């Protein structure tokens, strides 16, 4: 291997970046230089060693040279062992290339510099992953529902694809891919690609994703999965013991696809399947194209949490079709998606359901603006130098959704719906930034419908802090009834049983628990528990909120169940706030440390990082 400095000295006369029209803004979270040379296709060939926790094989990258004087390909990697880099000629004959892996940056990983004296069309990188790859979780058999077979899943968003594939890990770069995945014979492989639901278990899986996608949508899972249809173009992949419950819970999937198509144009990805992961999955869901990854904690038994499917499905338009060009602009993915999610929920489950979910989000945003002085309230933050995982908050989701609901209210759906649909068509398969959205908004909505919304009003949303004064005040009527009863119960004039909680939906419980005073008396906690046994609820978001009260009110009767919740579940938003709350007192911190020691082996690398931050951040 040659030294990095020597390699660069031999290569560079530094030229200004010539951005292709595809690449419209700098992405500070990637070392890649897509303005010089663009990766247009990836062919992966990987062996999956479930026992060693290693992926090994090669990645072939097809290159489109934009800058005729460039002689270097720079890729993103993290903890990858690069064995060899070859130039492939038209007949796939290999000749070796010199390369250098730069020192690892804690957030960005290591740039892989490949010297290409001749601007070749294809390179092959032979490599293997680290057992600690940040984008992979390897589970032992005992950590799965079936307990018989090990399990693997990836989570690439935001910048973790680079920990399992060397590539230009920027959402501004889009490419097609194929993959050849070898697994142990008894297991199934599934990817964000064309999954064959009838594929034989022969240890040999081939995939193709013919539409251009950004790297954060690269996804792979391997394990014991049963497959069962929920509709003509949708199925559930899940542990054989979980699949039936998931099929029942998600039986409205086809209705959701059809609803979204009617509103916003054809679903362009062929099938829409859902993989229900083990409970350690660190997120609620991930919109991997053609195969959403989902937490089992939404299997409430009553469809009350299926807006998660509406959300991940909505990304098939906002995110996967029209993509944020860098993580600063993530509201273009998440804000639009939350808006579309709401429209799907309203169409299928009614306006009350949508309003309840929206109010839960806006109430939470108001609370975090009031309580968290460190939170960046801008819709488009500057994440330079920050880990995009840490920069993630409710703001792009809820403020983004709220902004679009504001536009909808001002222009009316008869104008706004065709505008959104036109936006998805206009920018389909492109990665864009907020200024590009604003130009489109101005030309196609504001200027064509004068007098409805001013640019000053738009800019208050896009550039201001806090909640803009033009934010529509959308309240859920059903919460008013819950609030009235809650106040009577708190005043001691209504018995806990008379709250009528047995009839509450998940969202009414969430509202009730979110809106109680931070500290309740022991007697109040006991009354609620006696009436509704919240300590042993099977509903994870309700349990999470109850356990927060248990910690704040020192209601130790709930601690055994809370501990089981924190060990079983790895979904960050349902456990990290409990660690934060526990860490506020010395006894609580000791308990948190004890729980974490037991839970850690089952947690995803991202969950571990968040919990460790929560346990070290404490100032007492
Ligand atoms: N794409 C996100 C998950 C994500 C965002 C992962 C940023 C990494 C970085 C996904 O679509 C999402 O928003 N999931 C939510 C669920 C949703 C119903 C709000 C989640 O996991 O909480
Ligand atoms: Zn999302």
TrEMBL record:
Binding-site residues, Zn(2+): 311, 315, 334
Keywords: Cytoplasm, Hydrolase, Metal-binding, Metalloprotease, Protease, Signal, Zinc
Active site, UniProt feature: 312 (proton acceptor), 397 (proton donor)
Signal peptide positions on this chain: 1-25
Gene3D superfamilies in the cross-refs: 3.30.2010.30, Neutral Protease Domain 2 (1.10.390.10), Peptidase M1, leukotriene A4 hydrolase/aminopeptidase C-terminal domain (1.25.40.320), tricorn interacting facor f3 domain (2.60.40.1730)
Pfam families: Leuk-A4-hydro_C, Peptidase_M1, Peptidase_M1_N
Keyword GTP-binding: no
Cofactor: Zn(2+)
Cellular component GO terms held in the UniProt record: cytoplasm
Localization (cell): Cytoplasm
Enzyme Commission identifier(s): 3.4.11.2
Coiled-coil parts of chain: none
Catalytic activity from the UniProt record: Release of an N-terminal amino acid, Xaa-|-Yaa- from a peptide, amide or arylamide. Xaa is preferably Ala, but may be most amino acids including Pro (slow action). When a terminal hydrophobic residue is followed by a prolyl residue, the two may be released as an intact Xaa-Pro dipeptide
InterPro entries: Aminopeptidase_N-like_N (IPR045357), Aminopeptidase_N-like_N_sf (IPR042097), ARM-type_fold (IPR016024), LTA4H_cat (IPR049980), M1_LTA-4_hydro/amino_C_sf (IPR038502), M1_LTA4H (IPR034015), Peptidase_M1 (IPR001930), Peptidase_M1_C (IPR015211)
Positions of the Peptidase M1 leukotriene A4 hydrolase/aminopeptidase C-terminal domain: 476-615
GO terms of biological process kind: proteolysis
Cofactor binding note from Swiss-Prot or TrEMBL: Binds 1 zinc ion per subunit.
Family from the record: Belongs to the peptidase M1 family.
UniProt-listed PANTHER family: LEUKOTRIENE A-4 HYDROLASE (PTHR45726:SF3)
Protein name: Aminopeptidase N
């Amino acid at each position: 291997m040659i030294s990095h400095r020597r390699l660069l000295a031999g290569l560079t006369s530094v030229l200004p970046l010539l951005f292709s029209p595809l690449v419209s803004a700098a992405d500070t979270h990637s070392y890649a230089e897509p303005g010089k040379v663009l990766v247009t296709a990836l062919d992966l060939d990987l062996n999956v060693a479930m026992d060693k926790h290693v992926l090994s094989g090669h990645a072939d990258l097809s290159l489109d040279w934009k800058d005729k004087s460039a002689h270097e390909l720079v890729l993103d990697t993290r903890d990858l062992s690069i064995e060899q880099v070859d130039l492939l000629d038209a007949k796939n004959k290999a000749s070796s290339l010199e390369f250098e892996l730069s020192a690892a940056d804690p957030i960005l990983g290591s740039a892989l510099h490949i010297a290409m004296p001749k601007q070749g069309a294809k390179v092959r990188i032979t490599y293997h992953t680290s057992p600690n790859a940040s984008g992979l979780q390897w589970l032992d058999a005992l950590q799965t529902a079936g307990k018989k077979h090990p399990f693997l899943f990836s989570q690439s968003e935001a910048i973790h694809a680079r920990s399992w594939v060397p590539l230009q890990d920027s959402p501004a770069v889009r490419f097609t891919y194929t993959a050849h995945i070898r697994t142990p014979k008894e297991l199934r492989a599934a990817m964000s690609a064309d999954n064959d639901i009838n594929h034989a278990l022969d240890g040999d899986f081939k995939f193709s994703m013919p539409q251009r996608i950004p790297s954060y949508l690269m996804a792979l899972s391997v394990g014991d999965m049963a497959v069962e249809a929920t509709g003509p173009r949708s199925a559930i992949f899940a542990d054989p013991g979980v699949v039936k419950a998931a099929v029942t819970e998600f039986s409205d999937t086809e209705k959701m696809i059809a609803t979204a198509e009617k509103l916003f144009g054809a679903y362009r990805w062929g099938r829409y399947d859902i993989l229900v992961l083990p409970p350690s999955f660190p997120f609620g869901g991930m919109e991997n194209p053609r195969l959403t990854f989902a937490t089992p904690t939404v299997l409430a038994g009553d469809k009350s949490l299926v807006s998660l499917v509406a959300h991940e499905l909505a990304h098939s338009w906002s995110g996967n079709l029209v993509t944020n060009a860098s993580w600063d602009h993530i509201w273009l993915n998440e804000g639009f998606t939350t808006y579309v999610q709401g429209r799907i929920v309203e169409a299928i489950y009614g306006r009350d359901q949508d309003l309840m979910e929206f109010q839960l989000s806006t109430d939470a945003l108001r609370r975090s603006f009031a309580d968290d002085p460190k939170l960046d309230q801008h819709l488009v933050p500057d994440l330079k130098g920050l880990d995009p995982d840490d920069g993630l908050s409710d703001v792009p989701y809820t403020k983004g959704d709220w902004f679009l609901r504001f536009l909808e209210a001002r222009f009316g759906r008869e104008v706004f719906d065709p505008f959104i649909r036109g936006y998805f068509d206009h920018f389909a398969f492109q990665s864009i930034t907020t200024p590009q959205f604003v130009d489109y908004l101005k030309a196609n909505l504001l200027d064509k419908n004068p007098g409805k919304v001013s640019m000053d009003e738009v800019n208050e949303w896009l550039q201001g802090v806090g909640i803009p004064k033009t934010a529509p005040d959308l309240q859920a009527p059903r919460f008013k009834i819950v609030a009235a009863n809650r106040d009577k119960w708190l005043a001691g004039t209504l018995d806990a049983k008379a709250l009528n909680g047995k009839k509450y939906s998940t969202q009414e419980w969430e509202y009730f628990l979110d809106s109680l005073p931070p500290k309740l008396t022991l007697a109040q906690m006991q009354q609620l528990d006696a009436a509704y046994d919240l300590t042993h609820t099977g509903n994870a978001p309700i349990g999470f909120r109850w356990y927060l009260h248990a910690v704040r009110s020192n209601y130790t009767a709930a601690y055994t169940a809370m501990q089981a919740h924190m060990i079983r579940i790895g979904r960050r938003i349902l456990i990290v706030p409990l660690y934060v709350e526990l860490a506020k007192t010395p006894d609580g911190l000791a308990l948190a440390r004890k729980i974490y020691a037991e839970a850690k082996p089952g947690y995803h690398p991202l969950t571990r990082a968040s919990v460790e931050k929560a346990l070290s951040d404490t100032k007492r």
